[in-house]
């Protein structure tokens, strides 16, 4: 297991370097001069002398490869510079807002799993029944409705009409319900259909027929064997969607005024706050890498054949 994890960690190093390169390139490929943007945000008239001084201070007058190496070193130290708008350290600003995004992402994932696993399982067991059609209908609706529209619908009915839940902001657990439901609906659609298809596929495998022939009870076959194997694709999707939720809850955070990292990123785009944009791109890549690494380890624990296959191929 240790060798499997080490190999996975070594495999993500090139992806990590690509994330740093992409983050670095966004600053230098942008049509805006970082020094000019900084002076504009500080309400300082950008003369040639001041621009040259700021470029020297930021190291923008050095060769690109030198700037890239320095940028990688700073990123490894979690030093993303100072925000042009707040004048505070970017990493401190991110740490201030990331817990809210993490709370929203985790609650959405838990809600999606709690709903989609029973729906997908029942839909496969009672194939072509009323339960199956109902579950597939819920999945179809969830996959069809855009997130921002669903968010406004939930606000209109549950907040304005029925006055059950608060509309915006972050405070009690009630503020978390609407944005979590909005994010979870799309995931419920994906996981329900994925689990249904996987369970139906496993029900035709020889080991199920063999277990039935031995007299093993149906609920034991489903819970101990079929569901354990069928859940593996969902865990893979969970890793991808967890990274997506942590790095991309932008629309939902804007709709519900949720004070998270995604909303902070949107504000930085409008303000042309380049250090924050660079930090977001880099962290988004790292989050995807970390989530997929965790998923690889979980899949290996569920199905040890994965690590054995890796050794056989090599």
Your description of this structure?
The protein has 314 residues and is an all-alpha fold. The chain has a domain of 163 residues: MetI-like (MetI-like fold), CATH 1.10.3720. 79% of the residues lie in helices and 0% in strands. Helix 7 packs across helix 8. The protein is flat and about 85 Å long.
Annotation keywords:
MetI-like fold, 314 residues, mainly alpha, 0% strand, disordered C terminus
Looking at this structure, what is the CATH superfamily of the domain at 98-260? Answer: MetI-like
* Helix count, DSSP H or I runs of 4 or more residues: 14
Order of helices and strands: HHHHHHHHHHHHHH
Outline type:
flat
Average pLDDT for all residues: 79
- Highest CATH level, the class of the domain at 98-260: Mainly Alpha
Largest sheet: none
Question: Can you give me a brief rundown of this structure?
Answer:
The protein is mainly α and 314 residues long. Helices cover 79% and strands 0% of the residues.
């Amino acid at each position: 297991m240790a060798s499997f994890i080490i190999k996975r960690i070594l495999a993500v190093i090139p992806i990590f370097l690509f994330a740093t390169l992409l983050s670095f390139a966004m600053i230098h490929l942008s049509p805006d001069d970082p020094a000019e943007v900084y002076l504009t945000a500080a309400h300082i008239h950008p003369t040639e002398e001041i621009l040259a001084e700021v470029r020297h201070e930021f190291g923008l007058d050095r060769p690109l490869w030198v700037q890239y190496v320095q940028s990688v070193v700073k990123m490894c130290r979690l030093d993303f510079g100072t925000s042009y708008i707040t004048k505070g350290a970017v990493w401190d600003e991110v740490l201030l807002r990331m817990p809210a995004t993490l709370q929203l992402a985790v609650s959405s994932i838990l809600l999606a799993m709690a709903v989609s696993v029973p729906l997908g399982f029942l839909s496969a067991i009672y194939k072509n029944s009323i339960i199956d059609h109902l579950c597939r209908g819920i999945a179809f609706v969830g996959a069809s409705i855009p997130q921002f529209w669903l968010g406004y619908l939930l606000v209109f009915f549950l907040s304005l009409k029925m006055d059950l839940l608060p509309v915006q902001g972050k405070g009690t657990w009630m503020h978390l319900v609407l944005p979590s439901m909005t994010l979870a609906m799309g995931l419920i659609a994906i996981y329900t259909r994925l689990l249904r298809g996987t369970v139906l596929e496993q029900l035709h495998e020889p080991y199920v027929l063999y277990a039935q022939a031995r007299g093993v009870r149906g609920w034991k076959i489903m819970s101990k064997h079929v569901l354990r194997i069928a859940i593996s694709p969902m865990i893979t999707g969970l890793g991808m969607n967890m990274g997506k939720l942590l790095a991309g809850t932008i629309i939902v955070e804007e709709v519900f005024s949720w004070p998270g990292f995604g909303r902070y990123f949107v504000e930085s785009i409008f303000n042309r706050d380049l250090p924050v944009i660079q930090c977001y791109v880099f962290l988004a890549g790292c989050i995807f890498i970390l989530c997929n690494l965790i998923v690889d380890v979980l899949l290996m624990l569920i199905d040890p054949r994965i690590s054995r296959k890796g050794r056989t191929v090599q």
